Amino acid sequence: VSVGHHIFSVKSVCSTPGWQEWGPNIRTRDPAAEDSPTDASGVGPSPDSIIPIPSRSRRSTPDSHCSLRSILLQVRDLGLGYDSDETVLFKYCGGTCPRVSSNHDLTLTNLLLSGVLPQPAPGELWHHTPCCRPTHHEDMAFLDNSHRWHRVEKLSAAGCSCVG
User: Fold this and answer.
1) What spans are recorded as compositionally biased (Low complexity) (predicted)?
2) For residue 58, is pLDDT > 50?
């Protein structure tokens, strides 16, 4: 975000409590899959090649789903360097997103576990869960303590969705 001669960047991190990025929670065999039905070709999946996705152990409450949230705070608390006592409504996205395994996710997991693809470098994250992110933003205008108007583009979220 560019404000005057200042450039602000936002780093977003997507994480879901209880999930580790390609960590020890990934198993290479699903005992329950041994009794799984066959596909249309008459060939069932090999139990040794199935990578199950961990399931959540607790039910999500409606408030925990991805949605638009808001908080009243002073402009100076936004951390953008403005001296303003004005109170604004800052909107942001928060909550959990359902884990849906695509064919790409399953293939990537198999390639990582088999060693065909190198493991991510330390500090490099390969996100395999959707993130609750803004889909639309809105500008915010406010008056500083010197009685000057400021407008910051795309500062507040206007809509949210699970992305990724």
Assistant:
1) 45-55
2) no
